[in-house]
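User: thiamine phosphate synthase, Gossypium barbadense:
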Amino acid sequence: MAALVVDPVMVSTSGDVLAGPSILSTFLEELLPMADIITPNLKEASALLNGMQLETVDDMRSAARLLHNMGPKNVLVKGGDLPDSSDAVDILYNGHNFYELRSPRIRTRNSHGTGCSLASSIAAEVAKGYPMLSAVKVAKRFVETALDYSKEIDIGNGPQGPFDHLLRLKSHSQACHRQQPFDPSDLFLYAVTDSRMNKRWGRSIIDAVKAAIDGGATIIQLREKDAETKDFMESAKACLRICHLHGVPLLINDRVDVAIACDADGVHVGQSDMPARVARTLLGPEKIIGVSCKTPEQAEQAWVDGADYIGCGGVYPTNTKENNITVGLNGLKTVCMASKLPVVAIGGIGVSNARAVMEICASNLKGVAVVSALFDRECVQTETRKLHEVLLGSNIGST
Ligand SMILES: Cc1ncc(COP(=O)(O)OP(=O)(O)O)c(N)n1
Ligand SMILES: Cc1nc(C(=O)O)sc1CCOP(=O)(O)O
Ligand SMILES: [Mg+2]
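Assistant: Predicted structure for thiamine phosphate synthase:
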């Protein structure tokens, strides 16, 4: 599949004008109409739109729509320069849906070349066969990880320094992508809700999900053991709208019927739930299926059954799931080594031990799934953000 990614390089983030009016007309008349995606920053979007003021996320949405009318299939307006925003907010528009992609802003002078790297990374992901939304999310996380990795580098005398694109060569992870809609890097920070905890802290499940996404959660599972079916469906539908606005997949714990009824992105099932092969038959090939595994044999069966990923735990003892067997870091490593599927670690994980989990150095361990360290806390967004920073520091998950 040939695809054209156009980065309309005209004004750098630092304000340098890089292209004159003749280039502008080439962009408008020739390149935009044939692009699969364009990736302007705020100043470039404004230049393409005759000087339109862009100061808020709503302005970015309007700009994305207007730019889309000029011919590209997708528009990514990058909000890195948005005033008064603690997050890096980008808007992706494909002519049907808007996706608000947020990541915590990394403060560093080493940001030279981030725009070019983002566009190149999107091109690489699209060339691998990924759909545009996945490509943009992976590229954004690559840039974010590289920025964080490079934030202390001290090279050069200019106002901006370079960032280190080659961090991946220094990390242990080797990508093992499969050509399917599920993107294993979504397992990076897996937030699993718990109705009792949310009730205890007086928040709705919808507020909890929103806060987790704002803090940097990359996939959500609704694990609502006490909910009535009707209530569960209604909150699942509302959560799905929020998740999709941010390009974050939403899975349902245990209840394949609820997942089907609200068209969620998939399910997570355990060894005593509906077998994954039956869930696959009911859900079809596109939906995501995760299976809890504590042994290599279970991991092999999950793969045979057509699962997409494995949840392996308890890595540490947990109070969230009664009578759960703790497999420890060794058990996790054994399952990772045996598994042909990506793995997310679960059980007793939080900011204090997430790094140790990721440092078992298994290339298919893509992230951590967490309940109480996010949801049995006063501020879900703050706790998620802290965990996100720890995971970024451990240099994993963005492959
Ligand atoms: C990501 C993830 N991993 C494991 C589990 C546990 O699932 P299960 O064994 O079915 O237990 P319950 O969560 O249903 O109590 C999970 N939910 N998510
Ligand atoms: C839901 C679940 N499954 C586990 C497993 O080992 O399969 S451990 C667990 C609970 C995880 O909660 P917390 O992050 O609060 O420890
Ligand atoms: Mg279950």
